[in-house]
Amino acid sequence: MSIANLEYETVARFAQQGGLVYFILIFVAGLIYALWPKHKEAFRRLAHLPLEEDEADHVGS
Question: Is the distance from CB of 33 to CB of 39 less than 8 angstroms?
Fold first, then answer.
């Protein structure tokens, strides 16, 4: 089979399946990173960051 004999449907199917596998791997890697116990404290701190009062927020008061 040469490259010239590949049909559009064959190439499209390969690209779709390859893209699906790629995005699943990226998703799983991100999930593992987010759930890794070492990162728990950092994510907890970042989750509460918008709730913290900062003196810079009261400029002009």
Answer: yes
**Cα–Cα distance measured from residue 1 to residue 31, given in angstroms and rounded to the nearest whole number:** 39
What is the tens place of the pLDDT at every residue in 3-61? Answer: 667 899 989 999 999 999 999 999 999 999 999 999 999 999 999 998 888 766 555 55
| Reported pTM | 0.60
Q: Which residues contact 55 (CB under 8 A, 6 or more apart)?
A: none
The token pair that represents 47 in the structure block: 């989750």
The encoded tokens of residue 56 equal 């810079």
